[in-house]
Design brief:
heterodimer, A: 264 residues, alpha/beta, two-stranded antiparallel sheet, 11 strands, disordered C terminus, B: 631 residues, Butyryl-CoA Dehydrogenase, subunit A, domain 2, Butyryl-CoA Dehydrogenase, subunit A, domain 3, 4-stranded mixed β-sheet, 21 helices, 53% helix, mitochondrion (chain B)
């Protein structure tokens, strides 16, 4: 086993930014808006670096698909402790149509090329909330998957995983190589310290890849019709005297109730 | 006027060229590619930068146009460095708690140390980040969001360890800088004493050489020392006996003092109005033994070192205040656009709009001045920008105070409560016009330094004329004739070889008029007062104010010209801000300069002095009560 871990990082609009829809309703305003690494991807990078520090894996490679600016995201990953970066250059129209299926094909190809033992991803991106890339990548590679991981531990060539699911916590054991997607409580990502950032800027450890026919992006585009901001919240209407009953219950004493019909 | 002792300086802005040369050796390691900036201390005549020529009515275009630019690599670096610092300050810094408990929590302090913020300007070979003045100013924009943290960091690196950095010898640097860079040791700057605040040259702390000649024993006390309670390494200034030409004199020397030497006691932390999280206390030195190797620079050269240290840290106040105002604009506008009164949102009322315009203008001017100054300071040859830095400090501290007050005003009653951060910003900002050199002292410094330079040039010219240099005399007379006949002034900012973009032409013309009038005003003041001008504080105050506004106009025009020329986003807004500010400043300057004319009716100074004299003689307000009767 190569002991190499591939970590996918995505450049998204920063979580603190107020999103505005473009006037022509074709999407959201991204020009001049602050971008940063997807928070779940940060957690994935942190987990990979932790595994490296425990000497359970040998190398952490950060991968990002996107335009030139994705290199900043890769550099942040390098500053957090990743060893190498791979930037898959996707720009313009291709970038607008880039979705989980395309990214998972790229990751699958890279995993085979880099002989990766593990792929760590964030469970979802905060811009599209797809929650698909990890699962699709595992399917394409025919690897086991451990999604929504809140605890990961390596045991020989198997992985013990605790997954956060609707019903509670699920404990599973999967073989390597595998795909793991990180959930919120997996860890607390470290700050990229300034000295580390400066080191990562000096060492240009990022390779540039251009997607080729094997990882064709033209298949299965989902057309976007319209982007619209949600409507402003309106007040509620009291349809069945629920408000009246609520008042009575609150006061705690039985009262003579005059039922009035408030159906509107 | 090159200082022979100066070390060779490599500027970071030349790194790109070096990188291009070294790109084939990209993976050969950073030591070859990263060039360091070494600062040295000048011991004789200064090579002043741009502002001095303004006193002669000349604009030294080359110094300030075009606006200083940093390379793409450096810009990339700044963007990457800023991100985690911003994140840390928004997630992990609880300013309200720091203010309430009057202390910075150890975890926050450790977070700052881990980020590397304790050694921003310390060269990499000593464990710091080795960043330029410009990057330091940029980081300060974020650090200023919490006043206590900003002051703690500034006291540590902008003044506390600066002495070692700029005037220390190699051994001292090797010994002390690494631990200071990591934050393991914290530094403090100990100059002020109970009897010596603004008058720094009058300090009384003594350092006497021990009998074996190996130690100095320091005795005395210092007050208002930031980081005083937790500092391990202090730069202490004390009087030493020096022999100059066989005469024994008392001169100030600078020492690196470790708390571990013993004999140092810190008083209890001062309970302050603002920056409450910063530790400020009294320090007492009782026969503290300091090895002779710990003298910074030469014995007797301490005062110059102190002034150099203070001068080099000042400019960052511009970017700190700008960063704070930008944040305030965001917070306040959120409120102004949602709060409704009289069926309209606050943002539709003129007086509220004026406040926002004022905040935007101030932030714009402060940014422009700060980065112009830091760009000048980062140039190879290190010109002496102490005058410009002082101007940035005065403008920013007063502008910041006004803006913060107006921001609170927009929120009205809510702004006055502790539920919102505005009252804390107001309290934290009050210290700005006081520390790092009070604005009164800095105004004197600005005006007098410039007038000293102008005076020297003028006396030089007069000497030449007396020697019979007719050409010079004719030149001066014709210049005066032209000015009095009302000919338009052209200092080369606009027109064929102009450096200012045509959309800013009007403002540039106003600047040229101001500068030209300023030059002749300075000249007439020198003739009128001669050496006694040192005592005419109200005159010097106006001179300083005019100069500060002229420098601000220059910075703003330079920056806006560049923005248009390269097409930055929202450059038309910048043009609007620049023109508005220049218009405002033009008329203010003219009014001040009119007040400086001989027997000017607009000048109330004589009366003001009379009033002050009578009040101070009686140490009270002396008018009879309006309700009094005499019969």
């Amino acid at each position: 086993m190569s002991g190499r871990v591939l970590v996918g990082v995505k450049r998204v609009i920063d979580y603190a930014v107020k999103i505005r829809v473009k006037p022509d309703n074709t999407g959201v305003v991204t020009d001049g808006v602050k971008h940063s690494m997807n928070p779940f991807c940060e957690i994935a990078v942190e987990e990979a670096v932790k595994l490296k520090e425990k000497k359970l894996i040998k190398e952490v490679v950060a991968v990002s698909c996107g335009p030139q600016q994705s290199q900043e995201t890769i550099r942040t990953a390098l500053a957090m402790g990743a060893d190498r970066g791979i930037h898959v250059d996707v720009s313009g129209k291709d970038y607008e149509n880039l979705g989980p299926l395309q990214v998972s094909k790229i990751l699958a190809a890279l995993a085979k090329q880099e002989d990766a033992q593990l792929i760590l991803l964030g469970k979802q991106a905060i811009d599209d909330d797809c929650n698909q890339t990890g699962q699709m990548t595992a399917a394409l590679l025919d690897w086991p998957q451990g999604t929504f991981a809140s605890e990961v531990s390596l045991e020989g060539d198997k992985i013990n995983l605790v997954r956060e699911i609707d019903g509670g916590l699920e404990h599973i054991k999967i073989n390597t190589p595998a795909v793991i997607t990180a959930d919120l409580r997996l860890n607390t990502p470290r700050y990229a310290t300034l000295p580390n950032i400066m080191d990562s800027l000096m060492n240009n450890e990022t390779e540039l890849h251009k997607p080729n026919h094997r990882t064709s992006l033209c298949v299965g585009l989902i057309p976007l019709f319209e982007t619209v901001a949600p409507e402003d919240m309106q007040g509620g209407t009291d349809r069945s005297g629920a408000m009246l009953r609520h008042t009575v219950l609150q006061s705690g004493k039985p009262k003579r109730i005059i039922l009035s019909c408030l159906c509107i | 006027m090159m200082n022979m002792n100066r070390l060779i300086v490599f500027s970071r802005t030349f790194r790109i060229g070096q990188r291009l040369l070294g790109c084939h050796a990209r993976h050969a390691g950073k030591e070859e590619l990263r060039l360091q900036q070494r600062r040295s201390i000048k011991t004789h005549s200064r090579h002043l930068a741009y502002a001095k020529d303004l006193f002669l009515g000349q604009v030294n275009k080359a110094e300030v146009f075009p606006y200083p630019e940093i390379g793409n690599d450096e810009l990339e670096e700044i963007k990457q460095l800023v991100a985690p610092v911003e994140k840390f300050f928004s997630d992990d810094v609880d300013s309200a708690k720091i203010d309430r408990e009057a202390t910075i929590p150890p975890e926050t302090l450790q977070g700052l140390k881990d980020l590397g913020l304790f050694g921003i300007m310390i060269p990499e070979e000593y464990g710091g980040l080795g960043l330029s003045n410009t990057i330091y100013a940029r980081l300060n924009e974020i650090i200023a969001l919490d006043g206590s943290i900003a002051v703690t960091l500034a006291a540590h690196q902008a003044i506390g360890l600066k002495g070692i950095l700029i005037a220390g010898n190699e051994a001292q640097k090797q010994k002390y800088l690494p631990k200071l860079a990591s934050g393991e040791h914290i530094a403090a700057f100990c100059l002020t004493e109970p009897g010596s605040g603004s008058d720094a040259a009058s300090i009384q702390t003594r350092a006497t050489l021990s009998e074996d000649g190996k130690h100095y024993l320091i005795n005395g006390s210092k007050i208002w020392i930031s980081n005083g309670g937790m500092a391990d390494i202090m730069t202490v200034f004390a009087r030493t006996e020096v022999e100059v030409d066989g005469v024994k004199k008392d001169k100030i020397s600078a020492f690196i003092v470790e708390r571990a030497f013993g004999g140092i006691t810190s008083g209890k932390p001062e309970d302050k109005l603002g920056i409450r999280g910063s530790n400020t206390c009294e320090l007492s030195f009782d026969n503290v033994p300091v090895p002779v190797e710990n003298v910074i620079g030469e014995i007797g050269g301490g005062f110059k070192i102190a002034m150099n240290i203070l001068n080099s840290g000042r400019f960052s106040m511009g970017s700190s205040c700008a960063g704070m105002i930008k944040k305030l604009i965001e917070l306040t506008s959120e409120y102004a656009t949602t709060r409704k009164q009289f069926n309209k949102s606050l943002s539709e009322f003129g007086m509220i709009q004026e406040k926002f315009a004022m905040m935007a203008l101030n932030a714009f001017v402060m940014e422009s001045m700060a980065y112009l100054t830091s760009g000048m300071m980062d140039r190879p040859g290190i010109p002496d920008c102490s005058l410009e830095a002082a101007m940035v400090k005065v403008f920013s501290s007063e502008g910041g105070w006004i803006c913060v007050s107006e921001a609170l005003q927009v929120l009205g009653g809510l702004g006055y409560t502790k539920n919102y951060p505005f009252e804390r910003f107001v309290r934290d900002c009050r210290i700005l016009p006081i520390f790092e050199g009070t604005n009164e002292i800095l105004r004197m410094y600005i005006a007098l330094t410039g007038m000293q330079y102008a005076g020297k040039i003028l006396t030089g010219k007069i000497k030449e004329m007396k020697k019979g240099n007719i050409g010079l005399a004719i030149g001066m007379v014709s210049k005066k004739l032209r000015a009095s006949l009302g000919a338009s002034v052209d200092l080369g900012l606009t027109g064929k070889d102009g450096v200012v973009h045509p959309s800013l032409e009007d403002s540039a013309k106003k600047l040229e008029q101001n500068v030209s009038l300023f030059g002749s005003t300075v000249e007439s003041l020198l003739y009128r007062y001669g050496k006694t001008i040192v005592d005419e504080q109200l005159v010097l105050k106006r001179v300083a104010d005019v100069l500060i506004h002229i420098y601000a106009m220059t910075a703003v025009l330079s920056r806006a010209s560049r923005s248009i020329s390269i097409g930055l986003r929202n450059h038309d807004h910048e043009v609007l801000l620049a023109n508005t500010f220049c218009n405002d400043a033009f008329f203010k300057n003219n009014y001040w300069m009119v007040q400086l004319q001989k027997h000017s009716p607009e000048n109330n100074d004589a009366n003001i002095k009379k009033i002050a004299k009578q009040v101070l003689e009686n140490r009270a307000y002396i008018c009879s009560h309006p309700l009094e009767r005499t019969y």
